[in-house]
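Checked the freezer inventory, then went back to the computational side. Two predictions to log before the end of the day. The first one is the construct we discussed on Monday; recording sequence and tokens without edits.
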Amino acid sequence: MKNLNTVEIKSFVPAKDFELSKHFYQSLGFEMVSEFAGIAYFKAGACTFLLQDFYQPQHCNNFMMHLLVENAQSWRQHILDLQLAEEFSVSVTELVKQAWGMSEFCITDPSGVLWRIAEKSSP
């Protein structure tokens, strides 16, 4: 592809309860940079996504995000220390070393969106 430089890609993450989801992501550690017309722009480091005030159960329950981090265990412990599972009625799985070379755990957001938070495992 000649002269087709890409700059960024962002997902539109659905939210059943927009206010609750904004609070969840801020508690998780994302910064809400802006909000306008039912779209909130979140970032953590170089990672960004758009939270949308839109909910369709079939869509939310099949929506998945993958967040690659330097230390998945630290992220999981951060989530446990904040008691996000209890506060937001979400689930957090155990950290698992996957056959494809990642250590990861999963957390669901208040709308049912599945986040796979992973780090590259050493061989």
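The second is the one RB wanted added to the comparison set:
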Amino acid sequence: MNAVPTARTLLGHALLVDGLASGATGALSLFGANPLGELLNLPPALLRGAGAGLLPFAALLVVLALRPLAPRGLVWGIVALNVLWTVDSFALLASGWVQPNVWGQAFVAFQALAVAVFAGLEMLGLKQARLVAA
């Protein structure tokens, strides 16, 4: 198995913080969809769907972060999903499909940028793991 170390590494820390942030955002979006939707002028169904998808993703990230090793391919898949989330978030704002107010635009943009940072840190952690292995 082609695995990378996660215990006490940049990769492990990035996965853990990504998982905790994804879990918090997912719980807020899923369980607070109606008031959050009113505040941000975003459809509650969109928020619920995003939240429902984030919770299992967050759990996977935390489990991987707490293990000593993680499959390299799975971590690359997580990076790809984070990049896709970032691109889709900005595409959502540009599409006109939703009409968030300024707070909604800031919410979507901020979480997209945070996810992009996590993707970058996880990629850096993968590179660091490759250098350590060599």
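For RB: The longest helix spans residues 102-133. The chain has a mean pLDDT of 95. Let me know if you want it refolded.
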